Amino acid sequence: MSDSSLRVVWVYPDLLSTYGDQGNVLVVERRAQQRGLAVQRMDVRSDQPIPTSGDIYLVGGGEDRPQRLAAERLRRDGGLSRAADNGAIILSVCAGYQILGHEFVNDLGQREEGLGLLDVTSVRGEGERCVGDVLADVDERLRLPQLTGFENHQGVTHLGPTARPFARVRLGRGNGTGDGTEGAWNDTVFGTYMHGPVLARNPQIADLLIKLALDVNALPPVDDRWYEALRRERIAAATGPA
Ligand code: GLN
C-alpha cells in the first residue's frame, strides 16, 4: 500500500456481478475495516478507466455477452494488466476468471483473447452445464479451510504449467475438466468458479487477499460467528440428504 488506506477496486459492476458477486467487495471492505484499516473502495464501471494504483481488484461473473464486452474493454483499457504488473492482488470469479486467462470461447462461439494474467485457457464444455453446490479442499500452501461455493458455468478451464489449481473438488465440478481441479492461482492472481458470494462463504480468502496486499502474515481475529453459521448451513445443504 502506498498510502494509509487499502484501495479496493470492483471491476465493472455493470457487466460482471452475477449471483451476488458484489458481496465480495462488501466482505473485503468490512473485514479490513474491522481490523482498523481505512478502505478506499472504487466501483469502476465499464465506461471508466481502471485505476492502476489499487491494492485489491475484484472481478465477478457474468453472462456470456457481458463477458465478451468486459473482455474487450479490459483489453483496450489495459489498466488491470498494469495493476497486475505492479503486484496488485486480484480475485476473479467465473466469467472474470475466464477473462483473466489466455482465451475463452465467447457468446458468438469464437475464441476470444483474455488478459493472460493466469496461465489458463477456457473452452465451452460439450457436456451438461456445471451447476450446483461445490465443496473443495484448497491448495494446502494457502492454509485455508474447505472451500464452499455455488457454480453455474458452461465453460471448462484448462490449466497451463504456471497456474496452480486453487482447490480440488470433493463435490461439484470446478474447472470442469474432470481432473478434480477448481480455479487457479499464481502468487498474486486468483481465479475460481465459486459464487456464493465466495468471500461471504469463505471469509478467510478475503483475509488472505488483505494479508497479501498488506504484506503481513497475520491479521487480528474478528467475530466469524455469522460466517461460520452460513458455512455450516451451506455445507450441510450440499452434503445432506437429497
Ligand atoms: N459465461 C461463462 C460460462 O458459462 C461464465 C458464467 C458465469 O460467470 N456465471 O462459462
Task: Explain the layout of strands and helices.
Layout: E1 5-11, H1 22-34, E2 38-44, E3 56-59, H2 64-77, H3 79-85, E4 89-93, H4 95-100, E5 103-105, E6 111-113, E7 120-124, E8 130-138, E9 147-153, E10 155-159, E11 164-171, E12 181-185, E13 189-192, H5 198-201, H6 203-214, H7 225-239
Parallel strand pairs: 1-2, 1-3, 3-4, 4-13
Antiparallel strand pairs: 5-6, 7-10, 8-9, 8-11, 11-12, 12-13
Helix pairs in contact: 1-6
GO molecular function, one term: carbon-nitrogen ligase activity on lipid II
Pathway: Cell wall biogenesis; peptidoglycan biosynthesis
Subunit structure: Forms a heterodimer with MurT.
Characteristic terms for this protein:
242 residues; alpha/beta; Rossmann fold; nine-stranded mixed sheet; two-stranded antiparallel ribbon; 7 helices; 13 strands; globular; binds glutamine; carbon-nitrogen ligase activity on lipid II; Class_I_gatase-like
